[in-house]
Design goal:
Blueprint (H helix, E strand, L loop, with lengths): L8 E6 L12 E6 L5 E5 L2 H7 L2 H10 L15 E4 L15 E6 L6 E6 L3 H7 L4 E5 L6 E6 L4 E6 L7 H12 L5 H4 L2 E5 L2 H5 L5 E7 L4 E7 L4 H7 L2 E7 L13 H18 L6 H4 L4 H7 L21 H7 L19 E6 L9 E5 L3 H9 L5 H14 L3 H16 L18 H13 L3 H5 L3 H12 L3 H7 L2 E2 L2 E2 L9 H8 L13 H6 L6 H21 L4 H4 L16 H15 L5 H21 L20 H6 L1 H12 L8 H27 L9 H7 L4 H7 L4
Parallel strand pairs: 2-7, 8-13
Antiparallel strand pairs: 1-9, 2-3, 4-5, 4-7, 5-6, 8-9, 10-11, 10-13, 11-12, 14-15, 16-17
């Protein structure tokens, strides 16, 4: 293999490509971008039995690479990317996920973030179950994994333009064998952008070649700053070239079983999706109007849950803007096909003003994040979406973080002098874009914003004398990670879903709002604790095997509501048992999948403790996610809150000031949250301080000596 012109070879390792067998190649790839060291590392039976794949492999490799004193920007920190044994399956929808694991610059602990795109499956078909990257390069480098030729190269990158939409297209042409669609489609990249150089919100963009558009598409591992780690290591890109993908590329144990279960779910999607969530036409954007209807769409920093201008950015708008029709998916054979995009969008700001570009999305979180800024302009949503992506900035963190800034501005904590002339009131789209461009340039107030809410709170208190308690109540972060875009004030279970999530408040662990708030299916603490056991473990499983969660519950069998546990979608759970056994040859029941997740979940909780976190105090959440912080918030739902004071708290609100009512409701709700934590810890087999007990670790088969060493002082 000869490196493309201009890419000087720093180090090279030839290898004999391992063919995936029952979902595993049996080998992971280690690359040190500082020293040039490369190594093929065996996947042991213990790794498969205990950690399964994907997120599990990432957490295990990272555990063995770092110490409790390692920080995110130390050379020893790793970025680990893996798919999983089911990843790369083309006969069951949603099997194209990659999971990135690292130490986070936001939380200083373990982060896991998943993405679509082709990289994870292609990495496997190039011979590797995972890639772990360690060290720091002195200048921009590319890691190139050439599966057909059987060689890994560490290359000096000649490109100075690192923004994703430019670099990913250039890499595609540089590393593909020809301009033929099949050759272009054999390349997948991981890149980020200039925003990841200057903020802690850096995301990773995983690419795939869209044959219809004849262009590179991207999906994001957005959460926790993995892109910032990427750039701290001076990585410009990861590039993988895959051999042709076939239905039996995983060498599954039972092709017929996979085909049968795949045909069943595909028939459901084709016949039922349009009348349910309509993922094939509008994707996750269908949630915008649903969340608004139920008072759950965050507006103006989560103060309110709906807005009269929401129709300006709801799914009807995106239905008319999304192009290329169906299918439009981010993995081969995924009939869910929910990965939509807007072609030919004319940019009006920033370094690419005047260009017409492809915008991947918007997804619900990006549109809802715009509502959280008080901005209901679809042109802003698309402009912000594009620039966040190409700059490598997580749209959730950007919008949640900037919403906090806007409330601080309107509360008088900030002013135009402190923001460098920016008028950062809710609804100011131009100022919001100015902040975004500053982040990419590494200048102005944008650099401050890009450090995240937790660090902004400390700075505003120290430099401006701001009331830290107030900022702590309205700053929507937990564990250092910004909240994703749902209002949780009326769902105690969802508050726990956010607060107890291992990496911080991300909805991919547990989304319980409808079960709790709308349908009242989990009324007691014990019911909520059971849900906060099952659903985080169930959702963890998708990240272990390389699955997307959307085909699980975003389309449901017609008779699902008649089952005993409709929230679990039991037919689809049965499907996943068949998929796992069809690939690996290991017969499993639903409880086995939960047990697989419990092992990794508890191990990651111990990992958090090893890094100095993972105890009760770190499961605290901002009061804005629990109830009304300000009198304005209370008055916006006064009838509801007054009724709760009477019926739940036993206090007559008549004659009390709004401030007194806010305080009384707060005391009650904060106590409810603490009782919920007690119930969840008990259900999970953790101590009252949130540490897995030794008995629990022994039960799960993960009571390794170094694990016991971490938890023993906490028992």
């Amino acid at each position: 293999m000869t490196a493309p012109a201009g890419y000087r070879v720093i180090a090279e390792m030839p290898y004999e490509r391992a063919i995936a067998m029952r979902g595993y190649t049996g080998t992971t790839l280690y690359v040190n971008v500082g020293s040039g060291e490369m190594e093929a590392r065996p996947v042991t039976q213990q790794m498969k039995d205990v950690f399964v794949g994907g997120r599990g492999f990432g957490v295990w490799r990272l555990w063995n690479a770092v110490e409790g004193t390692t920080r995110w920007n130390d050379p020893e920190n790793e970025l680990v990317i893996s798919s999983g044994p089911v990843g790369g399956t083309t006969s069951y929808p949603g099997s194209g996920k990659s999971i990135a694991v690292s130490l986070s610059p936001l939380t200083d602990s373990v982060i896991d973030s998943n993405a679509g795109g082709y990289f994870g499956p292609y990495l496997k078909f190039a011979g590797w179950d995972a890639l772990e990257v360690q060290g720091k390069a002195s200048s921009n480098v590319v890691v190139f994994i050439d599966g057909p030729s059987g060689v890994v190269q560490l290359l000096e990158c000649p490109e100075t333009e690192i923004n994703t939409h430019v670099l990913s297209e250039k890499l595609l042409r540089d590393f593909a064998d020809s301009e033929e669609p099949a050759d272009l489609a054999a390349i997948s990249t991981v890149t980020t952008g200039a925003g990841a150089d200057h903020t802690r919100w850096g995301c990773l963009n995983f690419s795939f070649f869209d044959r219809k558009r004849k262009a590179v598409r991207i999906k994001q591992a957005g959460r926790g700053g993995t892109g910032t780690v990427f750039r701290d290591k001076k990585i410009a890109a990861l590039v993988v070239k895959s051999p042709p993908v076939t239905p039996d590329a995983n060498q599954p144990a039972d092709v017929a079983k996979l085909r049968e279960v795949g045909q069943r779910i595909t028939k459901e999607i084709l016949s039922l999706d349009e009348s349910q969530c309509d993922m094939r036409r509008v994707g996750t954007s269908h949630l915008v109007e649903i969340m608004d209807e139920y008072d759950l769409l965050p507006t103006c920093n989560y103060r309110f849950g709906r807005h009269p201008d929401t129709p300006n950015i709801d799914s009807s708008v995106w239905r008319s803007r999304f192009s290329q029709g169906m299918p439009d998916g981010c993995w081969i054979g995924c009939t869910m096909s929910c990965s939509h995009a807007v072609d030919g969008f004319p940019l009006r700001t920033g370094p690419y003003a005047g260009d017409k570009v492809l915008v991947d999305g918007p997804e619900y979180e990006t549109a809802a994040g715009s509502a959280n800024l008080g901005i209901f302009d679809p042109e802003f949503v698309l402009e912000m979406n594009f620039y966040c992506d190409t700059y490598g900035i997580d749209t959730i963190s950007f919008t949640t973080g900037l919403a906090f800034v806007m409330e601080c501005y309107e509360a008088g904590i900030l002013d135009s002098e402190k923001t460098g002339g920016l008028d950062l009131r809710f609804g100011n789209a131009d100022a919001a874009l100015d902040v975004l461009h500053q982040m990419a340039r590494g200048e102005g107030f944008g650099v401050t914003v890009g450090q995240g809410i937790r660090r902004m709170k400390a700075k505003f208190a120290a430099d401006y004398g701001a009331d830290f308690a107030f900022m702590n109540s309205i700053g929507m972060e937990a564990k250092g990670l910004e909240y994703s875009e749902y209002v949780t004030k009326e769902s105690l279970a969802m508050q726990g879903g956010y607060g107890l999530a291992l990496k911080g408040p991300q909805h991919d662990e547990a989304w319980l709002i409808f079960m709790d708030m709308v349908n009242n299916q989990i009324p007691t603490f014990e019911d909520k604790a059971e849900a906060l056991h099952y659903f985080p473990m169930w959702r963890t499983w998708f990240g272990l095997v390389g699955h997307c969660k959307l085909p699980w519950n975003d389309v449901e069998p017609e008779d699902n509501a008649e089952t005993s546990e409709p929230a679990k979608v039991p037919e689809h759970v049965s499907n996943y048992c068949a998929v796992f056994s069809g690939v690996t040859g290991i017969d499993v029941e639903p409880g086995d999948l939960i047990l697989q997740s419990e092992r990794v979940y508890n191990f990651q909780r111990v990992f958090n403790a090893r890094m100095g976190f993972g105890t009760r105090e770190h499961d605290a959440i901002p009061y804005r996610s629990v109830g009304p912080v300000t009198e304005e918030e209370y008055e916006s739902r006064a009838e509801r809150y007054d009724g709760q004071l009477r019926e739940k708290v036993g206090i007559d609100p008549d004659g009390k000031t709004t401030a007194e009512k806010v305080a009384a409701l707060r005391a009650y709700r904060e106590d409810q949250y603490e009782q919920l934590i007690d119930a969840v810890y008990k259900r999970r087999g953790w101590t009252s301080n949130g540490i897995p007990t030794i008995a629990k670790l022994e039960e799960l088969g993960i009571a390794f000596p170094d694990v016991i060493e971490v938890v023993k002082p906490h028992q």
